[in-house]
Amino acid sequence: MIAPIPLVKVLKKSAGLVQATCITLIPLSIFGCNPPEPEHLIIKDLKEKVSNFYESKSLTELLRIKTVLAGKELEGFCVLGAYEGRVTPDSDKVIPVNDFLGKYRLVGQENYWHLIVKTSDGLRFVRFNTAKTPLISPRPAYEGKNCVATRSIIFSKKSVLIGGAPLLGGGGNKKIVINVQPGD
């Protein structure tokens, strides 16, 4: 059975505060409600490191991640851009992530991209807001796949002109974007 996906975001006003509620009716997402994130699977320190890296001004520095989750060595990762809720069968063979995505209803939307990380403890993820940490798109494919088995992730930044470059995050005429590549 397919799990229902939020359809409509309803705003309620209660005691002067606006509260958003997602209503799940059918397995179709139109307005971009996000199901609650499984808090125990989010890598908060990695999100903070990448966000701080993005905010730094230097385009020449790199951020290399080899361990996550209190010293757990990295075994691989997957990058899912906007509107990507699954990886290709070839990518799923590298890191079996599609069942994980379905179980926790991690659905790519215009405003988010996901980094799924594999360690010996299993799969964990980080959801990045494209307005705050834009990802270059189309992002690099790793031998035609969304996933790669590797011992480190290298984050770099590029400056791109918005003119003809496809870019998640939009914004002014020039934008700094994150590029994610496998390390050694």
Write the layout of secondary structure elements.
Layout: E1 6-14, E2 17-24, H1 44-55, E3 63-65, E4 67-68, E5 72-80, H2 89-94, H3 98-103, E6 112-119, E7 122-129, E8 147-148, E9 153-161, E10 174-182
Antiparallel strand pairs: 1-2, 3-9, 4-5, 5-6, 5-8, 6-7, 9-10
Separation of termini? 40 Å
* Main sheet specs: 5 strands, antiparallel
Q: Give the % helix.
A: 10-25%
What's the rounded overall pLDDT mean? 74
Poorly predicted runs: 1-32, 163-173
Counted beta strands: 10
Approximate shape: globular
Q: What portion of the residues fall into strands of 2 or more residues? A: 35-45%
- What structural category characterises the helix and strand content? mainly beta
Total of DSSP H or I helical runs spanning 4+ residues: 3
Question: Your description of this structure?
Answer:
The protein has 184 residues and is mainly beta. The chain has two domains: 1-33, no CATH class; 36-182, no CATH class. Helices cover 13% and strands 36% of the residues. The protein is built from three helices and ten strands. The strands form three sheets. Strands 4, 5, 6, 7 and 8 form a five-stranded antiparallel beta sheet that branches. The longest helix is centred in the first third of the chain and has 12 residues, at 44-55.
